[in-house]
């Protein structure tokens, strides 16, 4: 049986949903304009001072208490709900990243960057979406019992901004209870919002292998220790780790992306070879097993070939793991916005430092389809996304906040 109270509440909710859609439509021209403004002036990791200023000005214009310089250039603005009586509810963290890449733009867009850097991953879109969601939520704060923490993060591309903000105490200060964020993906069709329960993006380790042999004459290999041959054996040796040491049920990948060796002469045996690569897995324990095996195999091959081999870890990122409860809740809201466009997505073997927030706070990350025909891949000089994907992102953030703090 449905009570009168429930009917009133449901009617209120429908009215609220309608007014969110109307507000998102009203704000869309401003959303697009802000994305283009940000797109024209990209800044790379931890250099985003002008971008942070644009965001800070917008947040302060909304009357939100705003803290800047968190993790070097990060910004957080806090919205207190304004229901009758003191706000008792929880705090929702909504995160957007705002760094560009050291890529020279070749899109030919009217608002293309001319400063040598580029928003080649869509972070301009993420920031415009979160800023617009903040504008709408400020107008609806009488429906919020709790706080929304708008978190603008620098240096996602170097996987260091989230860690820097957390090290600066951002979670201790605001104590969020739930965290959400999004990424525009031009591999996903326009009109889709995709997420999953559990691991969404992989963890990874970037590593370097230094091989020291003995240089020598190409015709007298017995007097040298050839680091190119040993390096080649290591590259091939590493490829059996995933296939022979890891369960077929646990995905993992090892790629050597750099093989640097030799002088300019083909008749000289190279004494030094440097390999750099990346290992990825969705389970941190599997990732550690892979990395331990990389060290063991590289050292063993080096010893067999009389070379000195050193393996160093350069960088490590956690997998991005969605909390099942939050992912399901967010998936339901996505379905109410894009209907059949709400999709489950296969885990992606790319890294994302939203993982740091999701490690500390239960939450979920989701992907918004922005495919554009003819545009280059993410991180390429011709990358672009379809701006028509942005309103759904705004609506999802706003409705998530209204629902969680309703
Ligand atoms: Zn990227
Ligand atoms: Zn990105």
Structure ligands = zinc ion
E-strand count: 16
> Tell me, what's the shape?
elongated
Low-confidence stretches are none
Tell me which CATH architecture of the largest domain applies here.
3-Layer(aba) Sandwich
SS-derived structural category: alpha/beta
Mean pLDDT over all positions: 95
Folded structure, characterized:
The protein is an alpha/beta fold and 406 residues long. It has two domains: 283 residues, Zn peptidases (Aminopeptidase); 115 residues, 2-Layer Sandwich (Alpha-Beta Plaits), CATH 3.30.70. Helices cover 38% and strands 24% of the residues. The protein contains ten helices and 16 strands. The strands form four sheets. An eight-stranded mixed sheet has the order 1-2-4-3-5-16-6-15, sandwiched between helices. It has a four-stranded antiparallel sheet with strand order 10-12-8-13, covered by helices on one side. Strands 7-14 form a two-stranded antiparallel sheet. Strand 1 and strand 2 form a beta hairpin. Helix 1 packs across helix 10, helix 3 crosses helix 10 and helix 6 runs antiparallel to helix 7. The protein starts with a helix and ends with a helix. The structure holds zinc ion (2 copies).
